[in-house]
Amino acid sequence: MRRPHIRGVAVAIAVTTAATGLAGTAFAGSGTGVERSAASAGTNASAVVKAAQAAAFAHASATGVSKGDELHAQDVMIDPEGARHVRFVRTLSGMPVLGGDLVVHLDRTLAYTGVTRAADHAVAPAASRARLTADQAAAKAAQAAKGEAGSAQLVVDARDGAAALAYQVTVTDRQGTSTVVVDAVTGKVRSNTPDSDEFLSPKLLADLRGRGETLDPATGTAAPEAGLLGSGVSGATTYPSPARGTGKTLFVGSVGLTTTATSKGHYRLKDPSRYGTETRDAKGTYTEKFSAGTAFTSTTDVWGNGTTGNRASAAADAQYGITKTLDFYKAAFGRKGIADNSKAAQGMVHWGSKVANAFWDPTCTCMLYGDGDGKTFKKPLVVLDVTGHELTHGVVDATAKLEPTFVDAKGNQYGEPGALNESLADIFGSNVEFYANNPKDTPDYLIGEKLGLAQKFLRRLDHPSLDKLEHTIDYWSPDAYYTEVHAGSGVSSHAYYLLAEGSGKKTINGVAYDSPTYNRATVKGIGRAKATAIFYRALTRYMVSTTDFHQARIATLKAAQDLYGANSIEYKTVDTAWAAVNVTVANTPAARH
């Protein structure tokens, strides 16, 4: 489940480059485009940022930028074909603007070509002075989130069609942190959102418990992956050194893991070949500090025994899933780490006491895995597509920062941007399975198929409404705005599947699919590799925090035009796929105010 963290403004800039496509349907190699730094592309990051800032103010009627605004670059993207894109967050009179993010698009010569913006209205609040003190706002936030409040920071809340002066407060309890936004004039709580990204929503957990359904996915071992397994370091003379270890996992059998030899005969579950990516043991605590986790060490370089009785078994699954997710993003898009900053991805297993969930936690920028509650969930949620799904929330958090429209009192989230976030997590989580191609976890367009659910999967991309647990929808309607985000995710997931594989019956890796269309039209897919390239380009270049399904259609059309041309089959099929889930120009809803 997407539980967004509304971040403060940071000025760090990451320069990224993008391949024009993906290398084959198995994602076996690097992208087909040539990665280039900003300098080798004929300019540098600072020049691109300055040009984009100048363009934003010069085209104020389109960008919405006005006097008192400051733009802080979050990402600079240089496309092989020459386009440049700068993602900005905004401050107004020094205050962070929530929902004020935008992407300025430039051509090869740094001339302005367009903008993608979250707020389609002026971000200056009607009231310029707070009536509440910071302490009063913090007290209201603590009451709303039932925890200990940190200091309150003045912000401009430009979300949901209007702008208001507000306080942003981080509230901490045993389970983690929440971000609470309190109106600085009226004292009304404008939003109260847990910061961690849970895989399973409160509603689904309650429904499963109400049905008395127990999830106890099968475990077991498999033959080692050929050419990957080993133990120890051959001829190492200095330490730490890379080592070749074996993970005996709960769900994907015996797998090869790159580990670290800390000295002769001593190993740590840390991968030096992937930026130092590591999995640690939270030992039942609720810590959100990765440094507080206990490192997994071994004298054999064998991790786990395929059962929950060995604490390292879950760690082996987690480390395998995290590294496969990193490898997928790098092979497919040249992305270096979750935030594309060549930094480690991290995970902690055995988190909390009887926690029946897994999380992407932006507070520690790491994965947190509970062991299950011992009743509904009997095992840790360390299956491969769960990790791919949750780490993709990290990718979204580092790019478009898609957020739900509103959250109910039980923590369930609603609205199209949040549903789109869930959909992207399912889409790319599925792609991680295809990339890993592990015989113990057959690649498919099903999500959570290894959880042991009675319906055999949690969600599916080809025919989302076959999910009767979350009541996922196949097609867009105005009610999508009020739909819980996991249920609403079916709209864009279905569009993606139709783009990739087409409509009707199809069997892939022994799994039968039968994808319907709203208009009963036939859709011929363009292949998973191209469809995934389009959705990734759309996410990173043309989506912002408020992007809904109709705006996602525009984003994917722009991405298809970038990659394949406006007259291409790929571009036309994007349009056809969205129409097949009832997302068209004709039914675009009016802006909400």
Layout of helices and strands:
Blueprint: E1 14-17, H1 45-58, H2 60-63, E2 69-78, E3 84-92, E4 95-98, E5 102-106, E6 112-117, H3 134-145, E7 148-157, E8 164-173, E9 176-183, E10 189-194, E11 197-198, H4 202-211, E12 241-248, E13 254-263, E14 266-268, E15 270-271, E16 277-281, E17 294-295, E18 297-298, E19 302-303, H5 311-333, E20 346-349, E21 358-361, E22 366-369, H6 384-398, E23 406-407, E24 413-414, H7 416-436, E25 446-447, E26 459-460, H8 485-488, H9 490-501, E27 504-508, E28 511-515, H10 528-542, H11 549-564, H12 569-579
Parallel strand pairs: 1-2, 4-7, 12-19, 16-20, 20-22
Antiparallel strand pairs: 2-3, 3-4, 3-5, 5-6, 7-8, 8-9, 9-10, 11-21, 12-13, 13-14, 14-18, 15-16, 16-17, 21-22, 23-24, 25-26, 27-28
What does this entry show, briefly?
The protein is α+β, with helices and mostly antiparallel strands. It contains 12 helices and 28 strands.
Describe the structure using short key phrases.
593 residues; alpha+beta; 12 helices; zymogen
Structure, explained:
This protein is of the alpha+beta class and 593 residues long. Helix content is 26%, strand content 23%. The chain has helices at residues 45-58, 60-63, 134-145, 202-211, 311-333, 384-398, 416-436, 485-488, 490-501, 528-542, 549-564, 569-579, and strands at 14-17, 69-78, 84-92, 95-98, 102-106, 112-117, 148-157, 164-173, 176-183, 189-194, 197-198, 241-248, 254-263, 266-268, 270-271, 277-281, 294-295, 297-298, 302-303, 346-349, 358-361, 366-369, 406-407, 413-414, 446-447, 459-460, 504-508, 511-515. The strands form six sheets. Strands 1, 2, 3, 4, 5, 6, 7, 8, 9 and 10 form a ten-stranded mixed sheet that branches. Strands 11, 15, 16, 17, 20, 21 and 22 form a seven-stranded mixed sheet that branches. The protein has a five-stranded mixed sheet with strand order 18-14-13-12-19, covered by helices on one side. The protein starts with 13 loop residues before the first strand and ends in a 14-residue tail after the last helix. Keywords: Hydrolase, Metal-binding, Metalloprotease, Protease, Secreted, Signal, Zinc, Zymogen. Residues 245-396 form the Peptidase M4 domain. InterPro entries: FTP_domain, PepSY, Peptidase_M4, Peptidase_M4/M1_CTD_sf, Peptidase_M4_C_domain, Peptidase_M4_domain, Zinc_Metalloprotease_M4.
